[in-house]
Amino acid sequence: MTDTSPLRLMAEDAADLEIISAAVQDSVTKAANLKFERRRHRFSLELNRFRWEEAVENPRQRERVRALLAIDGVLGARARGLTRSDPELVISLLRVEFRPGEEPPGGQVVLTFAGDGEIVLDVEVLDVTLLDSDYVWPTRHVPNHEKRRR
Q1: Would you tell me which of 15, 79, 90, 130 could form a disulfide with 9, CB atoms 3.0–4.6 Å apart?
Q2: Taking the mean position of all CA atoms in its chain, how far away is CA 119?
């Protein structure tokens, strides 16, 4: 494993969020790790993030890191194609994007998951944070987006 510093990223505009989205692409989590704290106006996910930044520098260096993705200022949340009925269900996060609303700075943060799952968060302002932990481990598997051959 490398001695790379953990990522600490914040997004306050769509361009910032694109960087976070690239960092969390192909992260996996369990349905039980999706948390909406209505009173605190916060939605968070504990993720096992593939360290793309390391794989680009050294293709043989394949690691995952435990990370937290937090979205603050959340006014409401709705899910499509996802269920929390099975808390052990493993889901893969593909993208995080911001859709501006009619009244800036509000809008929607959209989390897109493999298998057409989606979470849409209505936010009063874009405020997203990605924090890596120090828990890093090697992995043999590299996420692959190629179509399977028959």
Answers
A1: 130
A2: 11
Number of domains in the chain: 1
Q: Is the pLDDT of residue 2 over 70?
A: no
pLDDT per position as a tens digit, 97-114: 999 999 889 999 999 999
Residue 34 near residue 84, CB atoms below 8 Å: yes
Judge whether 146 lies within some domain. Answer: no
Q: What number of residues does the chain have?
A: 150
Residues spanned by the domain of 30: 8-135
Residue 143 lies in a domain: no
Residue among 87, 91, 109, 88 at smallest CA distance from 100:
109
Mean pLDDT computed over 60-68:
90
